[in-house]
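Let us work through a complete example step by step.
Step 1: write down the sequence.
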Amino acid sequence: MTPILVFLSLIVLLLTGMPIFAALGLTASGVLLIFEGSTSSFADTVFSHLSKDLLATIPLFVLMAQIMIRAKVIDDLYQFANTVVGHIQGGLGVATIMACTVFSAISGSSVATALSVGSSALPQMQRFGYRRQDALGVIAAGGTLGILIPPSGPMILYAIVSEVSIGALFLAGIIPGILLALIFAGYCVFQAAWRGGLQSPSRAEFKEILTATRSSIWALMAPPIVMGGIYFGIFTAAEAAAVGVLYALLVAVLVYRNFGVGDMYDCVYQTMRTSMMVFMIIAGAAMFGHAITIIRLPVGITEAVASLGLGPMGFIIAVMALVFIMGMFLESIAIILITTPILLPTMAHLGIDPVWYGILLMVNLELAMVTPPVGMNLFVIKGISDAPLSEVVRGAAPFVVLMLFALALLILVPGLATWLPYTAGFGM
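Step 2: predict the structure and record it as tokens.
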């Protein structure tokens, strides 16, 4: 009964609009005051969680994204994608997905991807006859790739909480991310053929393609430089983040030449705000994790699962269903930090690969970004388009079905997520 009361108390606090870190900290404090009469043990717990070297990757990747966004790299990315595939039926939708895929690998943020690509793609898609609803759905779904394609902020948080190799997770997200992008792109072609009546830009000449490639080459090179260094063992994830920041600065200052001291100040300021928010949440999660350990909640869940006779597959399906429901009401960060400490012992007992589970979790969190009432991408797209929220939801609905299909495929074929990191030597 106690675990249920703890969980419900946390959910109620979150639903009131209280900041995530405050809800986690208050719930944990209440538990410790009741069961231990003191919260003094929190100090060591919080310090141990905030002193991890991996945390340095968060502000560095955020800063890299801020610099690239400030330098307006996305304009060249979308123009490149549009030039290459815009002429085919549904090509503008495919171009939007392409731009989202590449920019996701730069920004690591679902919201930033949807906002940046959407601002360029929406007017262009409507100009060539796309229904606004369909265009909004493509942008909302494409933006979710920021959660799955590395470097991903939620993926870094999961790595910190679960103590899984961030390099392994980054590599594990590549194939599922590309697969999901291809599924989205295929649907865009199918939808265009089904709707009919769409115009397409004229086929670009080779010279135009070459010009677009030259303009976007610096943005296109960012993901291979960052991820390639990790894959080939040239540098660690933390070092990759630093290399990414340096690369972004060089591109912004020397290539685009639209980045000054004032821009750097703004980028650092936004990075500081975002990072401090994340660090406060991590501190709150550390307190919550310590509290649930005191009341033996993870052990209780493991015992309950054992008594029910759920195997690894049954457990995964049940957890994915739970996360899907939670995603309708809670933010992605909250879901990661609440569920992971509770489920890890049970996963270890059942022999479930935490890297595989991490990718399944990321896909499910993508669903959370486009499912009402709390889907962040839905509100972002509504903001840049002034469309009713109901229209955005209808446009995104087919992509929810596609993501559920991708999730089922990853559950049935774990190798899609685990092959690349294990081939690279992680977890062997």
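Step 3: interpret the result. The longest helix spans residues 261-294.
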